[in-house]
Amino acid sequence: MSYLFLFILGLAVGSFLNVLIDRLPNEESIGGRSRCDECLTKLAWNDLIPVLSYVKLRGKCRYCKMNLSWQYPFIELFTGLVFVVVGSMSPLSLEPAYASGNISINQSLLSLHTSFLRMAAYLGIVSTAIVIFFSDLKYHIIPDSMQILLFAFSFLLVVSFGLTPQLFLDHVIGAFVVITPILFLFLITKGRGMGFGDVKLAFSMGFLLGPLGGLTALYIAFVGGAVVGICLLIAGKRGWKSKIAFGPFLIIGLITMLWWGERILEIVKGLYGV
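Above: the chain sequence. Below: its structure as tokens.
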């Protein structure tokens, strides 16, 4: 699949993700024309071309001349690059199977269909993860609609690898294993130390990654959160009682294990002799 196509697709999707990031936490409709955050003027189509419009307007609103948020081009470019990375790691091709001569064209087409399904699931997961990351970072809210989508795409990805009863059970166990410590923290802190959105996110993360992968992702999230929290304290940006969104760290753990999980688990098993 053309990397240029994936990049352009990612830019367009990233533009839509910006809409979701700012509207869903505020319970606004995702329909309707985008407006300037400052003057609330409806933007024309040529104000909404991913990245290019921002560059052409030099980062300022065409109407009120106020600075536009860096979030918009950043999310668009980031999503475009992520789509290219996903495409490079999940190539869609008949060649590996059909060229060997040991597999029929029908089997090859089935393999291609599975590859499309798998890539769609990966792209869906990373797109949803981007919305969750920035929504929680910016508003301290993880929209329920994104939670549902993340679980749906996770289920789709698991199914694409062949869903047997034992495999399904393993993933369900993973969901409950990972959700347990997060739910415990939520209950003992009465929601002050951990939000219920984090609990729901941990469930999807555990289902997607399984017990060991999910717990490793959770460990990465806790370590990352602790390091950032300490750095913010030292820099004087936060106090001891300040709230820090934990969803972004869960997303970092999830994506890390989704892409490099096998290598990381090999290291973990080697260290603990599992």
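The CA atoms of residues 118 and 161 lie 8 Å apart.
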